[in-house]
Amino acid sequence: MAALIDAIDIKRKMAFEFEGTPFTCLDVEVSTPTARGGQTLVRVKMRNLLTRAVFDKTFKAGEKFKEPDLDMVEASYLYSDADGSYFLDQSSFETINLPKEMLGDALLFLLEGAMIQVEKFNGNPIGIVLPQQVELTVSYTEPGVRGDTASGAVTKPAKLETGLEIRVPFFVKEGETVKVYTETREFAGRV
Questions:
Q1: Neighbours of 168 (CB within 10 A)
Q2: Is 119:68 a contact under the CB 8 Å cutoff?
Q3: By the 8 A CB rule, do 132 and 107 touch?
Q4: Rounded mean pLDDT of 95-118?
Q5: Which stretches make up the Translation elongation factor P/YeiP central domain (predicted)?
Q6: 138 and 154 share a domain?
């Protein structure tokens, strides 16, 4: 039997099941009343792992939630077409198909063969977890001109091989491979 989690014990990035749906906690705030007999309330900013919707909900401290049956599977990105994107499970060698709406803009960080984690709920894939950084090649950027730093413009726009657009330092040239943080879409360095 799955363990039960008290609302008061919910922490950031913790997963829990509410009304049969898996959620992850983005932020939590506990309010303890000053009056006698008042109930402690837990306000949770949570993300629905199936729809990716984010909302706030307030629970009583003693409410209990099931631990969701979440599983992470290592997979490699194969390709995308009109029906969705395809990944190869590295342990069972099964092909996993995810529709585009389940991935959002994650495809901007994926090249063929890229290793990612596929998140499953009750054995069914519900999304992917990208690595913290990815390496992509700059397909287009304006050449950096000596003296650009004097105006305070130390970055310039660059388009990467997947179509992702980020800001890079002025010394980065077309054809170079750069590291990009997947969460913030920021330049992390050159390779």
A1: 22
A2: no
A3: no
A4: 92
A5: 72-126
A6: yes
Predicted confidence (pLDDT) per residue in 71-88, tens digit: 999 999 999 999 899 999
Q: Are 20 and 68 in contact (CB under 8 A)?
A: no
Q: Which domain holds residue 29?
A: 4-66
pLDDT band for 3, please (50, 70, 90 cuts).
confident
Residues 21 and 58 in one domain: yes
State CA 87 to chain mean position distance: 17
157: left (phi over 0), alpha (psi -120 to 50) or beta: beta
Same domain as 90, residue 56:
no
Asked if 142 and 116 sit in the same domain, the reply is no
- Domain holding 38: CATH number? 2.30.30.30
CATH number, domain containing residue 174: 2.40.50.140
Residue with tokens 């829990």: 16
pLDDT for residue 36? 75
Last residue of some domain: 14, 33, 66? 66
Question: pTM, whole model, 2 decimals?
Answer: 0.78
Q: In whole angstroms, give the CA distance from residue 172 to residue 62.
A: 54
* Tokens coding 72: 């992470």
Instruction: Give the count of domains, the chain.
Output: 3
pLDDT digits 0-9 by tens, 107-127: 999 999 999 999 999 999 999
Q: With a cut of 70, say whether residue 147 has pLDDT above it.
A: no
pLDDT at 2: 58
